[in-house]
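From the pipeline queue, job 12 of 40. The input is one protein chain; the requested action is below.

Action: predict structure.
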Amino acid sequence: MAIACLLTASMAVAQGDATAWPQLQTFHTYMSTTFHPAEEGDFAPLKARADSLLVAATLWQASPIPANYKPAETIAALGKLVKQCTEIMKAVGSNADNVILMKKITGAHDIFHTIVGECRKED
């Protein structure tokens, strides 16, 4: 499932969405460098970059939405993403158990894929 989602996001990037929305690409970089190591049991990158993940989500939320995205759905999903990244930051700051961190980063990962998939307008 994670591979299929990554391929979907990569295809979106290859089709020019990242160029049209650089904040998406920036967030994707932080997501991929924190989520995938966590899947393998390495939580050090997530712990080291939780603050950057939140900043990238916040900047993405503040950026203009490209025309090929559904505005209302995208705004709502980006709000959820910032909230989830805030929860990740708090969990890291309180030295939460890795099981909790995995649940939270997976939630953010799922929201990311909702944005790049379901929030995009049909081609």
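Job complete. The CA atoms of residues 50 and 82 lie 12 Å apart.
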